[in-house]
Amino acid sequence: MEQITLSVRKTYDCDVLVVGGGVAGISAAVNAAREGARVILCESGGCLGGTATKGLVGPFMTCYDKAGKTQIIRGFFEELVERMIKEGGAISYRECPGSDSRAGYRHKGHIGVTPFLPETLKRVAESMCLEAGVKLLYHSMLIGCDTADGRIGQAYLATQEGIDAVTAKVFIDASGSASLAHKAGAETFRGDENGFLQTASLFFVIDGVHKDELDAYMKAHPDMRGRFYMDIIEDGRKNGTFPCGTQKLRIYERPDGSWVVNMAQTDKGVNELDTEALTCAEIDQRAQVMQIFHFLKSNLPPLRDIRFVESAADLGVRESRRMRGKTLLTGEDVANSRYYDERIAVCANSIDIHQAVGVDYVAYTADQNYYIPLSALVSKDINNLLAAGKCLSADKYAHAAIRVMPPCFAMGEAAGITAALAVKKNATVWEVPVTEVQEKILAHGGYLE
Ligand SMILES: Cc1cc2nc3c(=O)[nH]c(=O)nc-3n(C[C@H](O)[C@H](O)[C@H](O)COP(=O)(O)OP(=O)(O)OC[C@H]3O[C@@H](n4cnc5c(N)ncnc54)[C@H](O)[C@@H]3O)c2cc1C
């Protein structure tokens, strides 16, 4: 058998390596660079945004408290949204009061969402990274790293021409699946004690909705079953014209008048870390997407003239492997609004769990805000490793609440600042005083009350 020898082709050196260019990675990279760190962001795809762009997922969920009155996610998130608005690629959350087409006709938890166009996010995020001095490496997939004495020294990236190596002082795992933490030998976990994971969904985009008719239909149907066409969908499932367990109409209007549809799913679940299983799910759901498109067109009068625009390049994976941090944020913390002195973000999104047929949506939280502690972003095992975004240290329930994009931006901001401070102080990420991180978050216009 032919022996494959992998030798390092190119080496890079930086202060902070961010793995993954989703919303958490973008925020982490820009914020670390603005604090003076030399930052590299490596991304296996060819653009920034991750689930928000390659997965076509949107809108940005609410950045307000439960009452929809106080904006609690601000800072970098707000800056990026303002820039996207200037480019015509987002509508301000201030103009989205909930209940309407941009909120998918939902009210609870949907006051102050931000509809946006993935193309604008790709460009604005790239500009912000480049302006801050972040070096972007696309088509570079982290495949391993050297770890000794509780520190990562060097990471290895698979590229078209071979392996590149990156040395850094601090590493941020924003891969969405704790790939770096896993490869570094840090403790990671996946699912809950029963191995439960939320369903994954392939988004698609349509246009040609008769919006005035749909608006009028929604107004005339205050009850949930009627409003979201649940009986029609259930009948379709029974007679084989609707392909999966999704129970409700889930469509959201975007700034250009197109609509994003979040309805496909593989009911039996997907092992998102297994290439063959992931490929099968993507093929299966791409077929489902066409069935759902034709179902909506044939059965929902306001959607009778819809046209198909595109399906997402990547399956939207709600939940994957996560890093075990110094603290595990729990559903109890969220439901009881547990206060952390070392909070780096204040959130309010409900616990939102998508399962196969039967239970489609579960939500409960107190009517108060809850808090993400910095110690849920630092590895308990590796002293120069942070995680941000959906691979933070949180149990199933807490994760289901804070996995939405505004909290992911906020986590990225805190991780980036912490990493840069660790570099400046020649300290471990465990030693960075949280008060200094908080001061910087507040100086950027953040909210920590
Ligand atoms: C179906 C679905 C519906 C959702 N609906 C909403 C919604 O309406 N509103 C909302 O706000 N949120 C929603 N969310 C949640 C939200 O989109 C995600 O949780 C969030 O975008 C995660 O961001 P992230 O940066 O942590 O990770 P990701 O977006 O997963 O980004 C990770 C990035 O890392 C890259 N990467 C992975 N592994 C490697 C590697 N080894 N080397 C290099 N790069 C790597 C990936 O290519 C990707 O670009 C939804 C999610 C899904 C899946």
The fraction of residues assigned to DSSP E strands is 15-25%
Estimated structural class: alpha/beta
CATH homologous superfamily (4th level) name of the largest domain: FAD/NAD(P)-binding domain
Q: What's the helix count?
A: 12
Shape: globular
- For the residues shown, what is the average pLDDT? 95
Strand order of the largest sheet: 4-3-2-8-19
CATH topology of the largest domain: FAD/NAD(P)-binding domain
Please state the CA-atom Rg, rounded to the nearest Å.
21 Å
CATH top level label of the largest domain:
Alpha Beta
The hetero molecules present are: flavin-adenine dinucleotide
CATH architecture group name of the largest domain: 3-Layer(bba) Sandwich
Description:
The chain is of the alpha/beta class. It has 2 domains: 8-91 and 116-195 and 320-443, FAD/NAD(P)-binding domain; 200-317, Alpha-Beta Plaits, CATH 3.30.70. The protein has 12 helices and 19 strands. Helix 1 links the parallel strand 2 and strand 3. The termini are far apart. The model has no long low-confidence stretch (mean pLDDT 95). Bound molecules: flavin-adenine dinucleotide. Flavin-adenine dinucleotide (FAD) binds next to helix 1, strand 5, strand 15 and helix 11.
List keywords for this structure.
globular, 4-stranded mixed sheet, Alpha-Beta Plaits, 5-stranded parallel sheet, FAD/NAD(P)-binding domain, 30% helix, 449 residues, 12 helices, alpha/beta, single chain, 2 domains, binds flavin-adenine dinucleotide
